[in-house]
Amino acid sequence: MRLEQVVPWGRSCLEYCQMFDLTETDLQSKILDCGGGPASFNAEMTQQGNSVISCDPLYQFSVNEISQRIDQTYPIVIKTTEVNRDNFVWTTIQSPEKLGQIRMAAMQQFLADFPLGLQQRRYQQESLPDLPFDSQQFDLALCSHFLFLYSDQLSFEFHLASIIEMCRVATIVKIFPLLVNMTGELSPFLEPIMQELTTQGYSIHTKQVPYEFQKGGNQILQVSAKQ
After folding, report:
1. pLDDT tens by residue, 39-97
2. For domain 3-224, which architecture applies?
3. pTM for the full predicted model
4. pLDDT digits over 157-184, tens only?
5. Mean of the pLDDT values across residues 14-26?
């Protein structure tokens, strides 16, 4: 990974809870956040006494490098959102400016926590589809705004291998959203992935969640590991 290829964009613990429809029991379980990026989920959960490990190749870079990259890409993301504003639901978040404030607050919280979290191994520079964790080490694996969202850049084989690997290390896997970035259309990989996972014996279903920012982006794919 080269830092100039990365567009850091972090979400809050509240958004994670809504995106993945997390219960209090979920929050108290052992969680792996795959592709966590500069989200404040780990920082906030740690403050609450909960257990999260976040993995992302972004974590190979220093806090200063990540901060500089956020500053470089932030206005570009806001401008792109403004241009594509008809693709979003502006209810909870009322405007691109408000979106920027919410995202920047989450990313600043991540940056403040990152050095200590790195020392504590809460942030690890690992990436799908190969994870260094033990089988069934986690109760829950989450993947936000990575799989399916970048179906035009990541292959079907990458998606399938990544989901199977998450199922190896966690009892339950949740992926959000199921749309291709900025299109509002379901990923073309979703149905064949579901069919292949079913054939291999996984328990799968889609579920509506109490979160929708990208229009139509209000579903997760939930996969249970083979027993």
Report:
1. 999 999 999 999 999 999 999 999 999 999 999 999 999 999 999 999 999 999 999 99
2. 3-Layer(aba) Sandwich (3.40)
3. 0.96
4. 999 999 999 999 999 999 999 999 888 8
5. 97
- The residues spanned by each domain of the chain are 3-224
Span 124-167, pLDDT tens digits? 999 999 999 999 999 999 999 999 999 999 999 999 999 999 99
CB atoms within 10 A of CB 173: 30
DSSP labels, the chain: --GGG-------HHHHHHHTT--HHHHTSEEEEET-TT-SHHHHHHHTT-EEEEE-GGGGS-HHHHHHHHHHHHHHHHHHHHHTGGGB--SSS-SHHHHHHHHHHHHHHHHHHHHHHHHTTSEE--BTTB--SPTT-EEEEEEESSTTTTTTTS-HHHHHHHHHHHHHHEEEEEEE--BPTTT-SB-TTHHHHHHHHHHTT-EEEEEE-S--SBTT--EEEEEE---
